[in-house]
Amino acid sequence: MKLTSAELPKDPLYTSLSQYAAKSQSFSRWRKDKSGTDQYSRANVVDKALQLLKERIRRGDAMAYFLRGQLYFEEGWYEDALEQFEEIKENDHQAMYQLGVMYYDGLGTAVDAEKGLEYMKKIVDSPCPKARHLQFAAAYNLGRAYYEGKGVTRSNEEAERLWLFAADNGNPKASVKAQSILGLYYSTKEPKELEKAFYWHSEACGNGNLESQGALGLMYLYGQGIRQDTEAALHCLREAAKRGNVCAQGHLVEYYYNMKFFTKCVAFSKRIADYDEAHDIPMIAKVTDCLPEFICRGMAMASFYHARCLQLGLGITKDEAAAKHYYSKACRLNPTLADELHSLVIRQRI
Question: Mean pLDDT over residues 191-209, rounded?
Answer without folding.
Answer: 97
